[in-house]
């Protein structure tokens, strides 16, 4: 749109993009002034609910006339797309200023934010998304509160998406998380979080994953401001503590009261100076710092202790690196068949760095979202909020291998390090070690932590390349991909029979081939092969999180050894808490046990670790489906489809959720689309039989059932699929016949947990015959 003229606005540049809008800087040619135009994104423009929410934002902000609130000029439409014309603010967000050294500046900003909130609350408007990113500071040091996209107007309809709690998690009040009453006191809580962050550069509530952060906000006391700095007035600390009270009743009854208290704090500081006296000696401060450092070492212990020590030895704070994104190395060979090599090198570095607890490493699914895109590293680094970005390119010509890599320091906007390696293909492992050691040096790693980056389970380069090819095809999640992967894993083992990870790869292929969602082979054929391979992997290396996860899944899906399965899942997570697949499979186990709330926590952990993983996002949606929270499930599946519209399993589960709501035409449409995307798939055909039969299209359902039965005579089709088809037809005898076959053969689309949680079985779940079959699984009774 840059360069276009819309109405009397000439678009100059793109300023930013968020979930509810794309913002451009424009020139108002009528009034000769700069404005900002916020457009409703195209993917939301078709939704009446999103249009209504966009209109509500315009109404909320335009009703406020205050110097600390961004001014709205009007709501207009261009070629069917709505946009808001608003004040252009030449400045930065508070996020870009954190932490702020002078408490006087913090108090000055706080007073202005409180004034803006008081204006909104007096008009019955609750912002509900107060955070540093939504507050700007212009060139005159004037605060401007932005983004009323989640604002709640008194008397307005509830327009928030049902899939997610309103607001940004780290800033949410406990009542927002717990779906309680949200009012002006909820904004006070978020305001308190912002003040804490302005002063300390830290959040008052933190957690290693989403579930831990939720628990901290609801149950734990906030960290004291004095832990991070000693110059903050006592009155300001008390005010922050009051805004962060768990119970809204213990916050300020009126935002006007908060406003007045802040004014008193400002007056006190101006009159009497800092509220916390200094001890007057530099020696005392040094002692405190030394004690704090030693306490940190004792607290974190073990693997993280080196970090505190290395900092004490003189690594400047400005050079400390705590977050990194490894972008997909580009295959510059001109031969697409070499993608396995560039992808494998990238994934190897991501996996190695992910073992280092003190680093935030952008997960594979998110990093690979940028594969093939031309966005520059600086832009991506800012999007991902990381300190450094590693980029690279790989050229393989015959036996000649060239790897180029560079680390970009996002904060300093400069190259931190760059190197080019020219070797023979047979030196792949050696050059990867050199590359990893170079990265370790730039990250200030020492000792065991640095050596962990160069650990590999084979010394044979040819075997390693074959393993990379196997994982490349396994990750395609198709029957053809699994079979191709098996060939490469076996070739790797032919070269290096002691390659534990290759045996794990073989087990993973057979494990998934035996699932009814792929219908690659009968479980009676696949699972013994998976079990033999994983046992061999354990003989060679019993410290692989991947191996424990695969063995647990085999125990769960085929052996029905429930206690052993949970023990292995817990061990896998202990070995590598960042291995998302372990959390997903463990969640499916918890579903089978009827521990549904625990299952959702594991799905959330997995989704936090791999936010762009199509499979994990689909599983996350299934957790809502199993809970009968169908609107939440639908929204989650749509988010997955937004990531990749061609992911068939998301369409499959979206269809099942529509079916559970009685929307059989919509369900059939999703099943048909899923079938087109996944080819000749019995899972989609069985689902389509169910939807068309329940949608009163008996003749069409019968024809599809005949197709499925004919298919089952030519290839393996899980009896679970046939049971579902007959459930839709309404033939209960045939349903029970095929369900009993599924139990006898341990063959289910996902795993046996569906018998407890899938709404498809609600029509028979209370029948004695169903209970008798269920009891054969050894699961806790229904």
Structure description:
With 782 residues, this protein is α+β, with helices and mostly antiparallel strands. Among the domains are: 5-87, Phosphorylase Kinase, domain 1 (2-Layer Sandwich), CATH 3.30.200; 91-272, Transferase(Phosphotransferase) domain 1 (Transferase(Phosphotransferase), domain 1); 282-314; 323-456, Rossmann fold (3-Layer(aba) Sandwich), CATH 3.40.50.10070; 474-576, Serine Threonine Protein Phosphatase 5, Tetratricopeptide repeat (Alpha Horseshoe), CATH 1.25.40. The protein is 53% helix and 12% strand. It contains 33 helices and 17 strands. The strands form four sheets. Strands 1-2-3-4-6-5 form a six-stranded antiparallel sheet, with helices on one face. Helix 3 packs antiparallel against helix 5 and helix 20 (545-559) runs parallel beside helix 22 (580-593). The longest helix is centred in the N-terminal third of the chain and has 20 residues, at 103-122. The protein is globular and about 85 Å long. Mean pLDDT is 82; it is low at 153-166 and 275-318.
Please outline what is shown here:
This protein has 782 residues and is an alpha+beta fold. 53% of the residues lie in helices and 12% in strands.
Question: How are the elements arranged and paired?
Answer:
Elements lengths: L4 E2 L2 E10 L2 E8 L4 E7 L2 H4 L2 H15 L9 E7 L2 E7 L3 E3 L9 H20 L2 E2 L8 E4 L4 E3 L6 E2 L20 H4 L6 H17 L9 H10 L14 H10 L11 H18 L9 H19 L1 H11 L10 E4 L3 E2 L7 H16 L5 E2 L2 H4 L9 H8 L3 E10 L2 E10 L4 E11 L3 H15 L4 H6 L8 H14 L4 H17 L4 H14 L9 H18 L4 H15 L2 H14 L4 H14 L2 H14 L4 H13 L3 H14 L4 H13 L3 H15 L3 H13 L3 H15 L6 H11 L2 H14 L8 H4 L10 H8 L7
Parallel strand pairs: 12-14, 12-15, 13-15
Antiparallel strand pairs: 1-2, 2-3, 3-4, 4-6, 5-6, 7-9, 8-11, 9-10, 15-16, 16-17
